[in-house]
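Usage

Read records sequentially. Each one opens with the input sequence:
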Amino acid sequence: MVTEKEGGVRAGIDLGGTGTRIVIMENQQQIAVAAMPTALFDSVPDAMRSGRLAQKVRELLPAGKRLISLGIGASGPVNNQTGIIENNDTLAAFSYFPLVEQMQQHLGVPVNIDNDAVAAALGEYYLGAGRGSQRLLMVTLGTGVGVALLDNGKPWRTASGAHPEAGHIPVGGDSPPCYCGLEGCWESLAARSWLQKALHATWRDEPYDDLALPYYQQRCEADPDVAGIFARYGRHVGRGLNSLLTLYGPDITLLSGSAAHFYPLFQPGMASALSRAAGYAVNKQILPSQLGDSAGALGAALLYRLERAA
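and closes with the structure output:
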């Protein structure tokens, strides 16, 4: 089998509820990347989806490069034993069929899959802001809320070996029941969708996805209502973080996902929700992802390292 020293490259796929990103990595350096809406696959017949996804990977391979592995980070739940995504709520197009097995057949290489937050955490641990961390907490604020804890580079699992869906914890507050069954679920209040809906209710003519951070900074300075929305969102994020920081005690916490772009705007609200009495303080070393939108896909390409460490 071709090795990295002989020109082999690794691919990583970040399968999110809204967007899909594919990267090709050579010697831990990104050499090609493509992004597309996940909805693109909704119109593809079920039996052809894995083939279409494999085609996207092949199209991205630079000339003369040989693929040696593929990793997939997917919006969970993901069954680590069967390699099957079990997420009809936000990733129905790729759920409940043997995606890993089919991708192995299409591409002829080993394929690993895990929760997208685990993938993002691995990306930061090896290539980004998490280098040198002994206990890294990663929280992705996207279509949903994903959480992963790396203990010396290894994902924390439940007793059954499953990945804990810690984005679905009760934090209280005024929110309708989440699809997970909880009222006051953290994901219902801290996912990008809450922020997007709140901003849309304030002004309906602005395209949320097309506006960058400087625009929102100006709006916050000019409009107290907009600043208040980001403060509320920060408090929502902080409520869940308070529980996780208390239980896990990480040395660093990283925030990724599309909503993390607005960290400077919601950080004050988040900090207020993390305020505690002396003796109960949590580690407030909380930073945005260094790798940004690429963290999940780059980390997915590194999932093969978990097999080596097992």
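Summary fields computed downstream for this record:
- Residues 224-248 form the longest helix (25 residues).
- The domain at 133-289 is CATH 3.30.420.40 (Nucleotidyltransferase; domain 5).
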